[in-house]
Amino acid sequence: MNFEIDSDIINKTHCDKDFICLKEEAEDNICKINKCFDDKFCSISKAKFENCINCFSFGYSRMCKCPVRIEIFKKYGI
């Protein structure tokens, strides 16, 4: 499945993974989100890329602040 994301969101996102989440087989290339908070960050249960610039540790949790990934979750529930 290819995800369609507004170009404004893509343009404001700094991604060191070349937006792999928007390419073919994208569902295999994204972190699993547990819950999003105020459209600013999400807790993730499984980080696909441990060294992603948009992921960070918060206590014992892993968090994601990627606007593209958050939009995929909001729009597609994935």
Write a structural description:
This protein is of the alpha+beta class. It has helices at 7-11, 67-76, and strands spanning 32-37, 41-46, 55-58, 61-64. The chain has a four-stranded antiparallel beta sheet with strand order 1-2-4-3, covered by helices on one side. The N and C termini lie close together (11 Å). The mean pLDDT is 87.
- Could you give the count of β-strands? 4
- Major beta sheet summary: 4 strands, antiparallel
What is the count of DSSP helices, taking H or I runs of 4+ residues? 2
Structural class: alpha+beta
Walk me through the topology.
Blueprint: H1 7-11, E1 32-37, E2 41-46, E3 55-58, E4 61-64, H2 67-76
Antiparallel strand pairs: 1-2, 2-4, 3-4
Structure characteristics:
78 residues; 4-stranded antiparallel sheet; 2 helices; globular; alpha+beta
Describe this structure in a few short sentences.
This protein has 2 helices and 4 strands, in the order αββββα. By secondary structure, it is of the alpha+beta class. The chain has one domain (about 5-75).
